[in-house]
Amino acid sequence: MQLFEMTWPQVDDLSPWTPVVIPVAALEQHGPHMPVFTDSLLLGEIMRRLEERMSERVLFTPLMWLGNSEHHLDYPGTMTAAPRTYLDLLKDMTYNMLSHGFRTIVLINGHGGNVVPAQQALFEVRQELREKDDMLLYSMTYWDAGAPPSGPEFTQHRMGHACEWETSMILHLHPHLVGDYASLEPVPQVLTCEPAHRAWITNDRSPLGYMGNPAAATAEKGAILLDRFTDNVVALLDRIIEETNTLAAEIDS
Fold first, then answer.
1. Where is pLDDT greater, at 200 or 245?
2. CA-CA distance, 218 to 182, in Å (whole number)?
3. Which of 76, 89, 209, 234 has the largest count of CB atoms under 10 Å?
4. How far is it, in rounded angstroms, from Cα 223 to Cα 128?
């Protein structure tokens, strides 16, 4: 079910146990070869596929394209909300749907900079509603929802930025939007002091604004990645629906 297609009485008629999925992405630089709307284009495709497979069981809100992208602000075209503003935006969207009676809210994320704010926003909502025992709040990032593709054809084993994975998926979906990527040299994805977390801005790691190995991208890899990521998110949403049904049975009994 797509929220933007519904009237308010139709929304009001839904079961309060219908999981609400709120997709959140970004508009930010993606190197010299990729469009600034990459994250939103990719998450939008994942959401389109999810809706095809889960339209009777999940309520999907429109994609929120503004993200937490301050680390990319040195590159023209990037648009961002300030970190606290973005946190409060995620909290407000969550509270909106809770105020309409829904009990399960899922933030599905498509941008690395949104991971921590999404987790923190839901953490804060849970603390503020600590007396409630009838709701479930989740955040996930689509490429971390399950095991990623593996095999000798992939040079990367985790998501980068404007990298082999993202470039491959855009090549599959919108090849006309991809510029010269074949001549780009790999940029390390792993920071030298991991697992310590280093605070960074993009220019600290990559003057051209990408991380990973975009030169290894192919449209065929993009198709594999999109299929796997979609399957992983569907499987995780199935688990969330199962947990929702269990809680509903306990509350309603």
1. 245
2. 10
3. 209
4. 42
Of 247, 243, 240, the residue nearest 106 (C-alpha): 240
Percentage of the chain lying above the pLDDT 70 cut: 100
CB 189 within 8 A of CB 158: yes
CB 59 within 8 A of CB 19: yes
Is 3-252 a domain of CATH 3.40.50.10310? yes
Q: Which residues of 138-163 are buried (b: 16+ CB within 10 A; e: fewer)?
A: bbbbbbbbeebbeeeebebeebbbbb
Alpha-carbon span 33 to 174, nearest angstrom: 13
Q: What share of the chain is helix, strand, coil (3-state, %, to 5)?
A: 45, 10, 40
| Digit-coded pLDDT (tens) for 147-193 | 988 888 999 999 999 999 999 999 999 999 999 999 999 999 888 88
Using one digit for the tens of pLDDT, what is the confidence trace for 90-148? 999 999 999 999 999 999 999 999 999 999 999 999 999 999 999 999 999 999 999 98
Contact 100, 20 (CB under 8 A): no
Nearest to 169 by CA among 152, 188, 149, 183: 149
pTM of the model: 0.95
> Any idea what DSSP says for residue 185?
P
